[in-house]
Amino acid sequence: MNRIYFKDNPWPSGHGIKEFEWLARLIPDSGIWFDLHLKSADYYEEDTEDIEEDGIPEDTHSWLHKEVWNNYHQAIISSTYWGNKGFLAGTEMNKLDFYDNKTTTFQVEMLPLKSNESFDDSAFGIYLLGHDAVAGHHIRFEKDESTSVFTVHWTGRIALNYSGEIDYDYEFDASISNVAFGGIELPNGCSIDEGHRLLEKYVSDINAFEWSPEQHKFLMRK
Questions:
Q1: Residue 74: in which H helix or E strand, if any?
Q2: pLDDT of residue 123
Q3: Which pLDDT score is estimated for 99?
Q4: Which is deepest, 1, 12, 71, 156, by most CB within 10 Å?
Q5: Beta 125-127 vs 87-90: how paired, if at all?
Q6: Separation between Cα atoms, residue 116 and residue 53, nearest integer Å
Q7: Peptide bond before 112: cis, by omega within 30 degrees of 0?
Q8: What is the Cα 179 distance to its own chain's centre?
C-alpha cells in the first residue's frame, strides 16, 4: 500500500498517499531534472473517532500532538507545487539509465547543507506543520521487470521551519508502487530534432524513449 510515515508522530501506521507524480525536464547545458510531487491523505483520515484531546500535556512538542497535526490537514512534499528546482538526474558525464540499472538511487541535498543554501532554493518544498523545510533525500526507483512501472522509495529529513526550528531533526519515509514515469519535457522553442540530439547527450540509451506528439514530450518505451 502507498504510505508515508513521519517517525514518532502520533500515527505509527503512517498515512495514505493521495497524489504522486514523477516528471522530468530537459535543460540544455545542464541535463535531465526530475520533479516529484506527493500529497498525503488527511492526517486524521483513518481515525475511527473524533479526538478533541489526545492526552498529551500541552507543553509537549507539537510533533507529538494529534490536534496540532490535524490543524494542518495533510502533507505536501513537492518540487512543482511551489516552483522548487527538483534535482539533476542525468548529465553528460553521468547519463540517466533505467534499463541496464533496474534500481537507481539518488541522494539529494545531503546534510549538512552548505552555508549558502537556503530554504527557498531547495529541491523540494514541504507543507507539514506549516511551511517547513526538507532535505537529506534518498530517492530509489525500482523498475518492475515485466512492465514499465516503478516502485519509489523516498526518505528525507525535516526541519520545522514554520515554528522557528532550523535543524533537520525529523524523518519521513514514503513508499509508492505502480508509478509511471511522466516523461521528459523539452524546453520552450526546442524542436523535436534538437530534442533528440539533447536527449542523446543525457540518457544511456536513446532508443529507450519515444516522442509523443500528443503529450509533446519523450516517454519511456514499454
A1: none
A2: 96
A3: 65
A4: 156
A5: unpaired
A6: 42
A7: yes
A8: 12
Count Cβ atoms below 10 Å from residue 213 Cβ, excluding itself.
7
Three-class SS state of 31 = strand
209 and 220 in contact (C-beta within 8 Å)? yes
Distance CA 114, CA 123 (A): 14
State whether residue 164 is helix, strand or coil.
coil
Instruction: Label residue 5 exposed, middle or buried (CB < 10 Å: 0-12, 13-18, 19+).
Output: middle
Report H helices in the chain. 66-72, 192-202
Q: Which residues contact 56 (CB under 8 A, 6 or more apart)?
A: 64, 65, 66
CB 148 within 8 Å of CB 99: no
Residue the block writes with cell 530534432: 193
Mean pLDDT by 10 residues, the chain (222 residues): 94 97 95 97 86 61 90 97 96 85 88 70 95 96 84 97 93 96 91 90 91 89 78
Q: Is the pTM of this model over 0.85?
A: yes
